Amino acid sequence: MDHFLYRNGVLHAEDVSLAEIAAEIGTPAYVYSSATLTRHFRLFDEALGDMPHLVCYAMKAASNQAILKTLAGLGAGMDVVSGGEYARARAAGVAPDRIVFAGVGKTRAEIRAALEGGVRQFNVESEPELQAISEVAVALGTTAPVTLRVNPDVDAKTHAKIATGKSENKFGVPIARAREVYAEAARLPGIAVVGIDVHIGSQLTELAPFEGAFRKVAELTETLRADGHDITRLDLGGGLGIPYRNSNAAPPLPFDYGALIRRTVGHLGCEIEIEPGRLIAGNAGILLARVIYVKEGEGRRFLILDAAMNDLIRPAMYDAWHDIVPVTEPAPGHERSVYDIVGPVCESGDTFARAREMPEVAAGDLVAFRSAGAYGAVMASEYNTRPLVPEVLVKGDHHAVIRARPSFDDIISRDTIPHWL
Ligand code: LLP
Q: Which domains does the chain have, with CATH numbers?
């Protein structure tokens, strides 16, 4: 459920008309709903209920500080994957003991910054990384709290580019080698083991792969405890999918996911962390665009929008489906048409949808890409020197630009010309 509904014939974000936002700041633009962000965070928080837990929002999904502040204000922690995300979370006022630091390639500079600024834990992905963290911690006269990310060799049954839990993926330590690596961690002077981490992939539409992974983690917890390790925290990652297509069967709900966590690892008495990104932000954001031209091609009709692959890369990158709807509510019995929906960028990959049936629209009309809140703005680029797409946050009848559209001068003036030119 989200808060993008038609009212008086116009699509609204909560109580604000998207037509008004477009008139004020132009298109393309991302628009987020605070109420949807809030609702989705709470669903997770409540799903873990009485278990000691922290929901660490995977801020890679949508990392504007206004979004981070909205979620942190509800009690969210953050899952960060780079020094930049760490700095951004801190700038948004997130307390260091609510930040978990993930990623296969943490540099020593990133590790140092997080240890100096404070961090809840590092989710460690390899032995060389463990070694590096220990050395940096010792140099700073401290110890680093860590979980080890184990790779459970579970098929997440999702798109290959976002599956992470199979042994061929670059992520984590093979679960079969976990005891060995934990033993090494225990010997390292700068390391304090606090738990286990697992994340098997993103946009999972079934619970079964989670169940397989969590059962393996439960078993490993008992084994490691028997080996003398103090396992008090289980970070179970993110990955719960969202419905991108109206017609799709609904993916599992956070409530059922919470029940699964309770059933598989609840008896261990560990503090539970989860790292949802997409389910919190995905349906809390839309990409607003305008039709520039309707072009009649050979046997097909192109809808050429002012949004492009640089603003929303998911269709080009993962063949992802986003519902695309007119901002003006189609009248009962309206005409429908079949379009190839494309952007203005100079390559055929700049296609959002092929042979998509939707209500007929005309040049100048506004459309909205639904479910674009996660992995939308954060993956945008300035390809074709198109200004980085702006963002707007709505709350009730308030709205605010939370990232302004840069001017051409802003973009161009970032280049510096060497003295010999
Ligand atoms: N934790 C870890 C360690 C992750 O790698 C990810 C996502 C998450 C949590 C959050 O997963 P979520 O709840 O959002 O599924 N750009 C792709 C998705 C990449 C996901 C990367 N890792 C897309 O647009 O589909």
A: 4-32+282-412 (2.40.37.10), 34-280 (3.20.20.10)
